[in-house]
Amino acid sequence: MKSKARSLGTQLVLSLGIVLSIFTITQAISSYDLARVGVNAVLDSRLSNVAQRVRDMFEDAIPRHSAGSLNADDIVVLVWEPGLERPARTTDSAVIFDRDAAPGFSDQFVNREAWRVYTLVAPDNDVVQVAQRISVRQRMAEASAFRGLLPVFILIPAVWLAVYVCVRRSFRVLKRLGQQARAIDSAHLVPLSARGLPVELIPFVCSINRMIRRLDASMKLERDFIADAAHELRTPLTALKLQADNLEGDIAPSSEERFRALRQTIDRTSQLVAQLLQLARADSQVVETATDEPEVTHVVTSVVADLLPIARAKGIDIGAGKLSAAKVRIPESDLRALVKNLVDNALRYTPEWGSVNLRVFAVHGRAHIEVTDTGPGIPDALLTRVFDRFFRCNHGVEGSGLGLAIVRAIVQRHGGTISLHNRRDGQNGLRAVVTFALAGCETPGQIRGGPCVTAFSGHV
Ligand SMILES: Nc1ncnc2c1ncn2[C@@H]1O[C@H](COP(=O)(O)OP(=O)(O)OP(=O)(O)O)[C@@H](O)[C@H]1O
Ligand SMILES: [Mg+2]
Question: Does the pLDDT at position 309 exceed 90?
Answer without folding.
Answer: yes
